[in-house]
Write a structure and sequence with these properties.
Low-confidence stretches: 183-191
Strand content: under 5%
Oligomer: single chain
Mean pLDDT: 86
Radius of gyration: 17 Å
Distance between the termini: 6 Å
Number of strands: 0
Helix content: over 70%
Largest sheet: none
Shape: globular
Structural class: mainly alpha
């Protein structure tokens, strides 16, 4: 994988995880403040999200990869993930909120697993562990950024973290799109 492609992938991963962490850390606040959910309601939403994540991981990811649709579906998944937080505030309905759990649950495993597959296919075997470690580290950076946003969320309100998450997913998609066009690069020299 070329240096430029690798840097784009790492930057995209940071933005992706800012988006994902902002949703995961702030949806309970939205459920409680907008619709007066109790702990049981938040748990129910979390169960729905988790079931969708599991089903997508088991039923969809392998089929998408096996059919060679990985790059196209990954790009679509990025944009779906970007639209969800924005839609929650554009259409403040509990049905939109619950639908967002399904959309996130379906598309997040596709993005994360297929990006890992793309990196694996484009990286020499001896460098894969190091590079996957760097990708996981950038995910942690995204989560830390969201925690910092969370410290100030009371000043901004619940809307700002979701909008930051939406913009971050869009940035991640824009950064990774050049890597998803056409044929993926094959393993080459070390990064």
């Amino acid at each position: 994988m070329e240096q430029r492609a690798f840097r784009l992938l790492l930057a995209s991963n940071v933005f992706l995880w800012i988006s994902l962490a902002s949703f995961y850390q702030f949806y309970p606040i939205v459920l409680v403040s907008r619709w007066s959910y109790s702990g049981y309601g938040v748990a129910g939403a979390t169960i729905l999200l988790t079931v969708c994540l599991l089903l997508s991981s088991v039923l969809l990811v392998g089929r998408v990869a096996a059919r060679g649709m990985g790059p196209r579906v990954t790009a679509l998944s990025f944009f779906a993930i970007a639209l969800v937080p924005y839609a929650i505030h554009l259409f403040p309905s509990i049905y939109v909120m619950w639908s967002s759990f399904v959309v996130k649950g379906v598309f997040v495993p596709i993005v994360t697993n297929l990006l890992a597959l793309i990196v694996s296919n484009a990286t020499p075997a001896r460098d894969q562990g190091r590079i996957m470690g760097m990708i996981n580290a950038t995910a942690a950076v995204g989560a830390v950024v969201v925690v910092c946003i969370g410290m100030y969320s009371k000043r901004f309100g619940e809307r700002v973290p979701f909008l930051i998450g939406s913009m971050s997913a869009a940035c991640a998609a824009i950064l990774v799109l050049p890597l998803l066009r056409g044929r993926m690069p094959e393993a080459s020299k070390p990064v």
